[in-house]
Amino acid sequence: MYKTILAAVDRSEEAKRAARTAILFASKFEATLVFAHVVNERDFSAFQYYVPSAWEETKKTNEAMLQQFTSEAESGGVTKVETVLRSGAPKSTVAKELAPEFAADLLVTGASGMGTVEKLVMGSVSSGILRRAREDVLIVRKESAGGYKKILIAVDGSEEAGLAFEKGVQLALQTGAELFIVHVYNSNLLYSTVLNTDVQKFMEDDDRKMLEDYKTQAERLGVAHVTTSLLYGAPKLIIPQEYAVQHEIDLIVSGASGANRTERLLLGSVAEGIAHRAICDVLVVRQPLEHREQ
Fold first, then answer.
1. Ranges for the UspA domain (predicted)?
2. Exposure check for the chain: N or C terminus, fewer CB within 10 A?
3. Of 224, 178, 175, nearest in space to 27 by CA
4. H helices of 6-53, where?
5. pTM (two decimals)
6. 1-122, what's its fold?
7. Angle formed by the axes of helices 54-75 and 41-50, to 10°?
8. What is the pLDDT of residues 268-287, one digit of tens each?
9. Where in the chain is the domain with CATH 3.40.50.620?
């Protein structure tokens, strides 16, 4: 499913969890694994003014950290491991420079920052990578050394949701996970439009058929346990904060959405909302570059 995985790492516990998950993915998919660390140039420049030798010391420390991650990856069965150390703005350097340089098709980063309302608020670096990346992005929040046990795929009938479904199924097959296929009938549509009862029923029936079609495909491909659910409400709230919590989901897989000529693919509000609010890992799936609008 992935050929080159780039994991953005530092010495935080969040990054260590992300690294271990990246190792698991690289091992299962026989992918090249790149560990990348970006020294924040803005913060470092002021420090270097007072300590001219700071860069050499920082370089030595971070190279040792990258070597430690490399050793863990090799012990975990990854045969192709590379490292890169750069200075710059981490969120743009990872997404805009390193990802294309190494032809990565998956970026892995840890979430960070605690909040009293959302429980776990994404840090500025992970959020920036998610918004800027052209590749799939995996936001890691929990330890999943043994693989995912429960995977939720958010679907809506779009092409990107179809891609998310394909990758979610592959991950379920790799880990033996139970699969939950969920579609949220956006209640805002009911309040903002005038729909008679017959039209509303037709739309709901169509959504149920879509879910059953997805379930049939997943079972045909070999997934043993598949549950489908049609929910009502705001997708970016219902999926991460209610359904995923109630069913103890380990990973949410969602398609990205929205395109323009400059960024090639902007992050849709639902995908971003899920990524920010979930307390489990989130994989945001994007279309391959060659399939996107020019």
1. 1-141, 148-286
2. C
3. 175
4. 13-29, 41-50
5. 0.88
6. Rossmann fold (3.40.50)
7. 130
8. 678 889 999 999 999 999 98
9. 1-122, 147-294
